[in-house]
Amino acid sequence: MNRKQFLQSTLAAALVAGGLASGVAFAEGTIKIGVLHSLSGTMAISETALKNTVLMTIDEINAKGGVLGKKLEAVIVDPASNWPLFAEKARQLITQDKVSVVFGCWTSVSRKSVLPVFEELNSLLFYPVQYEGEELSQNVFYTGAAPNQQAIPAVEYLMSKDGGGAKRFVLLGTDYVYPRTTNKILRSFLKSKGVAEADIMEDYTPFGHSDYQTIIAKIKKFAAEGKKTAVISTINGDSNVPFYKELGNQGLKATDVPVVAFSVGEEELRGVDAKPLVGHLAAWNYFMSVKNPQNTAFIKAYQAWAKKNSVPNLDTVVTNDPMEATYVGIYLWKQAVEKAKSVDVDKVRKAMSGQSFKAPSGFVLKMDETNHHLHKPVMIGEIQADGQFDVVWKTKGPIRAQPWSPFIAGNEVKQKL
Q: 3-class SS at 23?
């Protein structure tokens, strides 16, 4: 063995001994990061921006020296809004591409599709979107909101004097696990507040649904029967565009029947004329319109990245809640890797406990020590004519997630992993 070979061998041994190498994940001097988002199909309207956020954040981290002295390298796949394909692509990322972590999924059905793969192969998924709860996995970190960090506070707001004092509710969603489970929780919550069965209307449409004329007419009829009515929307993907257009077409204004959405943010409103929607609501943990130094820097960084990378419709580029959750999740993972001095899944999982980050929302968000969920603030925003949101209500600080809703019987003892 010559001197060069000896030094290379010694360095490699030192890296392995120090926990700084993890097979092919460090090949070519990089740490591979999986990006599992739909870039085509019905969910591309929402998920493409999250892929962009991962790439922007990777560039930002690499410009500051990377992680453990290694550059991050994105491995991007397109599951194309095809739920079984998510599982196939997840397996490809973990077993073939040898990624160290995956950031991805939007819908709960996509997350449910990949969950057995991550658990079987003991890999980590960071999931950045609000969801229905009723799940805890050692292999997932949930950086979006649980129901008590979005759905329940939003309905409480609608029932309050400031929110219009709603007495009747339309639960309208896309037909899959997230809307149905969320509405099961909300039905139980509403009944606990004395709302009668006759004062709750529930309806679902398939992914990609585009004709909302009949449903909006049914909502108008339901609202005309007396008490103040509000719509709680868990419609996902590009169906939001025809839904909001039909609201405008039929003149259903927020002063008559307010709509609060859980899956509509700044990105989705880029596709519609927001003027007829002024006053309708969304519940999130972040809005682009919040004012603080962290958010100013976040928006500036994303807009600069979008310009450099020729993102379409550059003049209307926005940030939104799942983008913030993606951004925060990547930095929390980076901190955990640096604490663990390794990308080893078991070591990183342990190091994630209690990690915190000053987020663009302006709050310090902490990863809970026992349930893999972020503590998050809750905000209610009113749609403005420019497609932005005016924050009309927010919590004083971050709220600890309840993955297992107390409004579903038997969940009282399920809060820890």
A: helix
Structure tokens belonging to residue 75: 């491995």
pLDDT along the chain (417 residues), means of 10: 45 41 51 98 96 98 97 98 98 98 97 98 98 96 98 97 96 96 97 96 96 96 93 94 91 92 91 87 98 98 96 91 98 98 98 98 97 98 96 97 91 64
What integer pLDDT is reported at residue 262 of this predicted model? 96
The pLDDT score that the predictor gives to residue 28 is: 55
CA dist., res. 402 & res. 190, Å (int): 18
Distance CA(368)–CA(372), nearest Å, equals 6
**Residue 212 φ/ψ, nearest 5 degrees:** -105, 15
SS3 percent helix, strand, coil of the chain, rounded to 5, is 45, 20, 40
- Considering only CA atoms, which of 82, 83, 85, 92 is closest in space to residue 34? 92
Q: In terms of DSSP bridges, do strands 101-104 and 125-127 run parallel, antiparallel, or are they unpaired?
A: parallel
Q: In b/e form, how buried is each residue of 155-181, taking b as 16+ CB within 10 angstroms?
A: bebbbeeebbebbbbbbbbbebbbbbb
Give the chain's count of helices (H) and strands (E). Answer: 12, 14
Q: How far is CA 80 from CA 55, 174, 227, in A?
A: 19, 18, 42
Closest CA to 136 of 368, 379, 354: 368
Measured between alpha carbons, how far is 276 from 56 in angstroms, rounded to an integer? 33
Burial pattern 59-68, b for ≥16 Cβ within 10 A else e, equals bbbeeeebbb
| Contact of 326 with 54, CB cutoff 8 Å | yes
**Cα–Cα distance between 129 and 236 in angstroms, integer?**
11
Residue type, 313: N
User: Any idea which residue has 């229905």 for tokens?
Assistant: 132
185 has which bridge partners? none
DSSP 8-state secondary structure symbol assigned to residue 208: T
Core vs surface per residue 125-135: b (16+ CB within 10 A) or e: bbbbbbbbbbb
For residue 26 the two structure tokens come to 């460090």
**127 closest CA partner among 50, 185, 61:** 50
Contact (Cβ atoms closer than 8 angstroms) between residue 373 and residue 417: no
Report how far residue 270's alpha carbon sits from residue 358's, in angstroms, rounded to the nearest whole number. 27
Name residue, tokens 């890999």. 123
Q: Which DSSP string corresponds to 379-397?
A: EEEEE-TTS-EEEEEE-SS
Report the length, in residues, of the chain.
417
